[in-house]
What does this fold into?
Amino acid sequence: QSALTQPASVSGSPGQSITISCTGTSSDVGSYNLVSWYQQHPGKAPKFMIYEGTKRPSGVSNRFSGSKSGNTASLTISGLQAEDEADYYCCSYAGSSTLVFGGGTKLTVL
Amino acid sequence: QVQLVQSGAEVKKPGASVKVSCKASGYTFTSYYMHWVRQAPGQGLEWMGIINPGGGSTIYAQKFQGRVTMTRDTSTSTVYMELSSLRSEDTAVYYCARRTGVAPDYWGQGTLVTVSS
It folds into this structure.
């Protein structure tokens, strides 16, 4: 199972919006509406941000939203804030109870 | 509140085995599967496998088949991940993470395993 493909880095200024893509295959992202997204600050455990492609867990800001088209899922962060600077990972169900993660994207808030 | 508390850091020699524990609290232990995910230094997240604490069934990523064993102790609400035949490339932070739907939601604090001669 190959890792999902994410851009290594993205950046944006405070108040702007950014989008992080996550490209998989017809065996994972394309087959299921089961992509989740995680935020990870240095030295910390990942934080659950989006599940089932578009849903936000309780307590997650509505500035974070998810979408999917074909084999590519996306995370959009609107109204960028300094505390959004972190690494972001996508994760997709890949069948038979297995998961596959993306390589991660470093978000820099300029 | 949901908490997953993992065992402390380990240093192991190549060829040895390591067993990491993850104690759950704040929810019904047997009602949620548990994932194991690792992260090598400066690298991304890698899914290792999953265990059903209720029945004990497991599914492992193909990469770790034959080297990883996941078990659970329902009397203490603890899951374990044992990795054998350690090599330097296994140096990583190992996380347990509860499954909701299919996705990991709550994560443990991580356990650093260092493999060095």
User: Anything to note?
Assistant: The radius of gyration of chain A is 13 Å. Residues 1 and 30 of chain A are 14 Å apart (CA to CA). DSSP finds no helices and nine strands in chain A.
